[in-house]
Design goal:
single chain, 4 helices
């Protein structure tokens, strides 16, 4: 505002990026991440949930901290999610996918029972 309060003086802020520049930077960062991440398919999705359960059971280290801790409630919830996925995808999976999910669920359920029993 001017001293007499009669109006605004607008100045262009050269330090701010435009929306287009921000989008390009985000796209570049995303492209870098895409080259390092595995292809997302049913198997990698199930394996990621499997890994989450193993972290929650304290079987493997937490990726961010390297620490081990147990959270049996989260482990059970993620096992239940895998069970729901098995139920809802019945008839839509290849035999390899079905067997993988069945075996992972069995192993995780046995680990959970061992931890809670």
């Amino acid at each position: 505002m001017t001293e007499q309060g009669k109006g605004f003086i607008l100045k262009e802020d050269k330090t701010k990026t435009t929306h287009e520049e921000a989008r390009q930077q985000a796209d570049a960062a995303g492209a870098d991440r895409k080259t390092r991440l595995p292809k997302v398919d049913f198997a990698t999705f199930v394996f990621s949930l499997n890994s989450a359960v193993l972290v929650h059971l304290g079987v493997i280290d937490e990726p961010g901290t390297g620490a081990r801790s147990k959270n049996l409630d989260l482990a059970k919830q993620t096992i239940d999610i895998l069970g729901m996925l098995q139920e809802k995808s019945r008839g839509n999976l290849t035999s390899d996918e079905e067997n993988m999910l069945k075996n992972i669920l069995y192993d995780l359920r046995m680990l959970y029972v061992r931890e809670t029993g």
